[in-house]
Structure formats: C-alpha cells, structure tokens
Amino acid sequence: MTQYWNPRDVIAYHCTKDLSQTQAKLWSFIYGFAESLVLKSAIQLDIPDIIHNHGKPMTLSNLASRIPSPNGAADHDRLFRIMRYLVHMNLFTKESIDGEDHYGLAPPAKYLVKGWEKSMVPSILCITDKDFMSPWYHLKEGLGNESTTAFEKALGINIWDYMSKNPKKNSIFNEAMACDTRLLMSALVSECKDMFEGIKSLVDVGGGTGTAVRHIAKAYPHINCSVYDLPHVAADSPTYPEVTRFEGDMFKFIPKADAILMKCILHDWADDECIKILKKCKEALPSNGGKVILVDIVLNALSEHPYTKIRMVSDLDMMLNCGGKERTEGEWKNLIYAAGFSRYNIRQVNAIESVIEISTDPKNTPNGARQISA
C-alpha cells in the first residue's frame, strides 16, 4: 500500500532538516578553535613524531607509554578521546589489527613531523601561540578609526617592539616565517627560473633568518645574495657562507642590487608605507635592468582556489596584528604605479602567495607583463 505524506508533514520535515543543518554549521564555527588547539596539543605531545619514528601504526597503550608525562604514561581514556578527534580530522588513521586498534599517520600528518623542510610545525606553534592569538579577541575594538591595532590593544605594544623585547616569541615568529619560506621557495626557484636570468646581485629586504635568499643562492650560485633586516632579527639569525647580512631600516635605506626580493613584507604595511618602501627599492635599483620581486598574496575573494579562504584569513591577520592588508591585483597596480614603476607581471606558483615581478627597464618587460597606464 502506497503511503502518502501530508504536505504539512513534508514541510515540517524539511524545515527541521534545514534547521538542524544550519545549527550544525553554526556550531562548527563556534567550536572552530578546537581543531587548531587539538592539533597543537598533538604536536606538543610529539604524537606525529612518535608514530613516524615507530615506523608503523601503534596501539593506544604503546603510544601512551611513549608520550612524555611528569606522572608516568598518559591517561588512556584522555588520550583515546584526543586520538578519536584527530582521526575524525583525517590527520590520523585507526585500524583494527588482531582485535586491537592501531593508530597511524594519514597523508596530511607528514607535515606534522618535525625536522624536514616541509614540516608545518613552526607555523602551527606560532599561529596557536596564546599571545599571537590574543589580537583576535580584540577584533571588535580594532575596527575603530584610530591607528591602534588589535595587537596593541591585546598586548599593550606594537608587534615590532614586542618582537624586539621578547626574544623567545621573536624566535617562534621567525621560525614560522622560515617554515613558510621553505614551503614557498622550492616552487619559486623551480617555476620562475627565467626571472633570475641576468641578475648578478640580489638583496632580500626584510629577509628574516635568510631562509629564502639561501635557497636562491644555492640554486643560482652566480648571484651575489644578501639579506637586509632590523638588528634584533639579525641577532636571532644563523649565518650562512653563501649569504651576506646587512642590518638597517628599509624606510631609510635599501642596499643597491640588480634585484630586490621582498617576501611577505608589504602586506604588513598600509598603502602609504608600501609606496615609501617601493620608492626606496627604485632608488636602489639600476635604471636599465633592475627588478623588484614581490612574493605576496594576490587576493581574489571570488576565486574557488583551495587557498582563497586562507588568503582572506591572512588579510584579517594583517589587519589585527600590524594594520596591513592583503591586496587585489588592482590594489597592487595602484601601489606599483604610485611608486614610479610602470611594468609588472603576476606569476601564479604552487603556494598561497603569488610572485609579482616589477621591472625598471622599459626595454625589458617581464613575460606577459601588464603595462600600467595613467
């Protein structure tokens, strides 16, 4: 016998289903912090490294016995509940072997293993650091017209002074920047080889620990590479035989070179400051063949690229921490033109950031370059 639904029951059913889905979505946003902090705890407990070094999936009891704890082995029930959530996040696997559950690493977890060039551990520890998360609690206050950032409201000091006065936090921050650089530079060096042709000298402005420019120096040993940053950054940086280090302020002076690299620098600053920095770059370059290589996000909120959401989150991050922003191509074009340049080219690489190549030579326009017109 065919059963017919009362139209009112059908409407009630779909309303209930839609309500449940909507509320579930909102609850997932409300508890969105949980995933990043559970992930952080897994790293702090060395879970990815313990399983990786073991070489195969481990039982819960075996895993618990390996986790450092001041009171002996980790509590099995608590560890089980953390692992259950990590499996739900598809970062770890669970399989039954001989009637006992064994936990292994899912493919994304390789980026949670420490000590290799594509490990994302430093970025995770930096972004989830209690101090570095605190500006997000001041998002509302940060909407005011005054120049004070949410970072200053949270910690009572601007981010640059904070880094210079807190060596441990500065180290965490620099390690995270170096982590991001390692993920990016293999793509930059392999996908933009023609961009380095004819360059004899290159200075990485705001280059931090020198990770980026060292990749270039190794890939192109004919280029005389140097890194230029503030004194407190240099004090926390290793020395490399293939890289020369200079200390200074990019707003006052930039060393002369055939090419200037700036990776994730201009997004820290408002438009006026960016124009000042780009003008200093122009002064440091030869007029007949120099170039600025910007590695920064080109924002397109309508894009369906998997990095689009991360790029928009980074835009808020810049606003909160330093008053900077991520920019669209149109906004980049305005800055480049205002600084006195007339040609640029945007290259998409396998990274969150893009590469913006700006040329000073009117006869040597970058491949596919956009000509800026007034």
UniProtKB/TrEMBL annotation:
<keyword id="KW-0949">S-adenosyl-L-methionine</keyword>
<dbReference type="Pfam" id="PF00891">
    <property type="entry name" value="Methyltransf_2"/>
</dbReference>
<feature type="active site" description="Proton acceptor">
    <location>
        <position position="267"/>
    </location>
</feature>
<dbReference type="GO" id="GO:0032259">
    <property type="term" value="P:methylation"/>
</dbReference>
<dbReference type="GO" id="GO:0046983">
    <property type="term" value="F:protein dimerization activity"/>
</dbReference>
<dbReference type="InterPro" id="IPR029063">
    <property type="entry name" value="SAM-dependent_MTases_sf"/>
</dbReference>
<feature type="domain" description="O-methyltransferase C-terminal">
    <location>
        <begin position="136"/>
        <end position="342"/>
    </location>
</feature>
<dbReference type="InterPro" id="IPR012967">
    <property type="entry name" value="COMT_dimerisation"/>
</dbReference>
<dbReference type="InterPro" id="IPR036390">
    <property type="entry name" value="WH_DNA-bd_sf"/>
</dbReference>
<dbReference type="GO" id="GO:0008171">
    <property type="term" value="F:O-methyltransferase activity"/>
</dbReference>
<keyword id="KW-0489">Methyltransferase</keyword>
<dbReference type="InterPro" id="IPR016461">
    <property type="entry name" value="COMT-like"/>
</dbReference>
<feature type="domain" description="O-methyltransferase dimerisation">
    <location>
        <begin position="27"/>
        <end position="114"/>
    </location>
</feature>
<dbReference type="InterPro" id="IPR036388">
    <property type="entry name" value="WH-like_DNA-bd_sf"/>
</dbReference>
<protein>
    <recommendedName>
        <fullName>O-methyltransferase</fullName>
    </recommendedName>
</protein>
<dbReference type="InterPro" id="IPR001077">
    <property type="entry name" value="COMT_C"/>
</dbReference>
<keyword id="KW-0808">Transferase</keyword>
<dbReference type="Pfam" id="PF08100">
    <property type="entry name" value="Dimerisation"/>
</dbReference>
